[in-house]
## 1
Amino acid sequence: MSNASRAVFLDYASLDLGDLDMAPLREAFGELILHDSSTPDQVVERLQGAQVAISNKVQLDARTIAACAELELILVAATGTNNVDLGAAREQGVSVCNCQGYGTPSVAQHSLMLLLALATRLPDYQRDIRAGRWQQSPMFCFLDHPIVELEGKTLGLLGHGELGGAVARLAEAFGMRVIFGQLPGRPPRADRLPLDELLPQVDALTLHCPLTPETRNLIDARELALMKPGAFLINTARGGLVNEQALADALRAGHLGGAATDVLTEEPPRNGNPLLAEDIPRLIVTPHSAWGSREARQRIVGQLAENAAGFLSGQAKRQVN
């Protein structure tokens, strides 16, 4: 592959909202073709003659990789590589590089925003103001929804990588005590509590771990029942970490103080989801937007360009296969 390579970005609109500087990526290739989105039956045709495929979430399976004879490099515009058949790419001699750590500030602040919104009952007060309830109050203030201070409370973290560490620092700035849980399938550590010991202690639990066979439904009905009455649950990691029906049931039963999720098991949720029912109290759902600050998306552009340059120089960066 050379600097004159042809690169095709298959789902460019998932990254750029018209607010990014794409010069670093354009300068990395001789030709850069941008497609807002690509359906499965368009991918092979669009990648013909291309040495580089860039994808955020478009699937690049074994059949697709085999049908693209000139393909040498796949750049994933995200951290997760589950949309690429890594084994097939390896067999075909196609390198795969991802992006890492680009969204840490954005996701960390989103996690704390969700926790603060639950603790201060922000959605409930906003709803009541729109309904005119404050306007009709006999007093200057309207305090129908109990507010919780974070200071002095205990935050449990599952996943203590770069992102989990950033969330821990923000929580400590609010005066919270932070403790970490042991993830299944990981070697035990003295500074990680088993889940059954962690859950009864925490006033809030945030998830920042990958979705693996060991962590699927990590938080199920049993785990939710172990949490303190009134505790908060925040998930900005992956939808499959939480049993969504069990969470809906726990919220309806009033066991939890509230929950917030930026992720669902199917995205977008075209086929419905238990957490989208209108009768679930104290639930906030955001549309997988935690990562999407302009700054984070610009970092992805920079990392894609760095990964391409590294591959060209024989010193691949962030290679995953």
## 2
Amino acid sequence: MNILIIEDDARIADFLGRGLRAEGHRVDVASTGPLGLVAARQLARDANDDHQPSVLILDLMLPGIGGLEICQTLRAEGVALPILMLSALGTVEDRVAGLRLGADDYLPKPFDFEELLARLESLARRSRELRRISPARLTVADLVFDRDRMQASRGGRPLSLTAKELALLELMMSAPGRLFSRERILANVWGASEDPLTNIVDVYIRRLRAKIDDGSDRPLIHTVRGLGYRLE
């Protein structure tokens, strides 16, 4: 397994690194938020290329960029890397915030190393299963989303989409015909930190329509008034 540890406590990072390498895993360490974000993006690209199970161990309290922001940024960019959050902040509210922003698991400090190993192995198994069942390309009519390259096209014409637009499009294309409420879209694409009363979902739906449906005689994004949106 390829493991990236983003942890600014040198003692904990060294302990984890030595222990995980002794278990036969490849381990890299980043000590700041900005360095960790760059390393996480690279780990995700490497995972797509060599198809090895990869996991990110992410501390919350980091210099530069906090762990929650790193998690939210990666998910907004469509990075599906399994994320295990570590933090001394172990309240229910802290765990819920981390999970809603896209973390796959949350382990409060102090922790038992054997439990950490078990959780990492579980995340790796789930990642392998998702790779087997999740297609690399999503297709709805003539709209195509390439998950490996994070690129979309319609009728063979490449679409210029931002990271948030890509995340929103991938969510809707993952379940064609399914009705997504504004609240569900907000939670999946923006995370729990966004004001639930914001109109940002409607703004981004309009942007997607302008890029995907305008000029086409077959619109794919549909509004169900008062309930949400579906793509079919």
## 3
Amino acid sequence: MVDHDSIFAVPIEKLGDFTFDETVAEVFSDMVQRSIPGYSNIISTIGTLAGRYASAGSNIYDLGCSLGTATLSMRRHINVPNCKIIAVDNSPAMIERCKIHVNAYYSDTNVDVIENDILNMDIQNASVVVLNFTLQFLNPDDRQTLLERIYVGLKPKSILILSEKYSFEDKTAHELLIDLHHDFKCANGYSELEISQKRSALENILKPDTIDYHKQRLSNIGFSSVTVWFQCFNFGSMFAIK
């Protein structure tokens, strides 16, 4: 049974920055389902795309793997031999649970679960790389560097899957999409207090980019095809093909 997210349900006197600690890890599955519109569709399609683009003998990277949901989706769809999924996260609490989830089921596709900063990872011989709501938590100055390293480490005709929260230059659209997301969370049982406190906790660590900025940056790096394949409100996912 998934633990219910009530982290911000009571007033917090000293509200610090959001961290992916033990408390968050315990309720993370509930949190993302109730906070990110279309999350289940994104996860299932990550698996489908991995099944299409994974090549024999290559590495598959899930950077910022959290509990391993995208990793498991990919593993279910990969049907070529000698692939290895490398799942990386810098949160000990997330990694501990990810290992449990990965080890619960046997698969011909091996998974290495690694506790590390994704900025320290050497990306090589990759046919699929996933950043599922991960890039937005990096310092903006580090995003370009990581994406460039991913591009270099990807084999030709391979894929990067990038899911993110988006900002919008059109102020009217930006505010409306934020309101629609607010309504989405209310409909999923979050109170005004919970929404407000979580927004404040994320304010200093989650810095979203616009869709156009994402596309231009990926194109400038060298990706030949960049497309948003899913969007709901101010959340979405895109793929970039080398």
## 4
Amino acid sequence: MSAALKAGLIGLGSMGRHHARVLAGLEGVELVGVVDPMGDKNGWAQGAPVLSTVEELIALGVDYAVVACPTALHEEVGLQLADAGISALVEKPLADTVEGARRLVEAFESRGLVAGVGHIERCNPALLSLRARLEAGELGDVYQVVTRRQGPFPHRIADVGVVKDLATHDIDLTGWVTGQTYTSIAAHTVSKSGRPHEDMVSAVGQLSDGTMVNHLVNWLSPLKERFTSVTGERGCFIADTLTADLTFHSNAAVTTEWEALRAFRGVSEGDMIRYAIPKREPLLVEHELFRDAVQGKPADICTLRQGLRTVEVAASVLESATGGTTVLIPTDRGQEQEQEQEPRR
């Protein structure tokens, strides 16, 4: 039986504590140390030693580390790990700037290290099922992807706005479920909470196959909503990632005798199906995939290069909102080549 991988965690905040919980119980992995300069006053480290610096964690000889510190520190911490030859799972977004994200991609790729980004929606049961159904052609041609991600202001976030913190979820999942890349984006943002960063964004974009995209994201709503719809030739899929439910609304196939409706060359309401989906915790699935990748097994993780693309699109959203223009997004050939070389699992 092979020895357990030694894992470390950097950051014990709102996401870090969940990473600690999962790592502590993950088969084939031993959580050997947690880094947080503030200590562990809440007991979230699951009994693992709590360290003050990344250097102390590196000295323990970890095989990989999870980076769950504030976004502004991702680049610094990630480069430290790469320099030490340690694989890393970095919480999303990969970095707070495009330049920083590119430096991380170069650092890990040049050393041949396994590295991924924690875009956890890729492990949501509803979106996994949706993606598989789109790949199987169940919807036919895809016309539009619409997402809504809104809720109350999270006091844990202080270093970035709603675009980098929340909208990056929707940017990544849209490209991932459709298998396409963004080619343009137009956005508006507002800041109503008195902070320097935006807390609401509305964006319209286009993907490489012509699919239209709409994102509405905010921290200003008492209603918590996580909605994704994909409309296409044969109907519409709706995923609720809070409950991990997926439904399909089909186009009506019944001929109508109502003259006014028959004259309208569109679609009408058909059957609705709610799928029964096995529902495992997305964070656990994410950790299992990354563990397998570190062990050299096939695993469909979000790569750093894919994470970089999401940061680039997020930067284009902010550029559009600032300049009041539609921003064209160059195709990333590196990512396209990666997708061509790695068959979907």
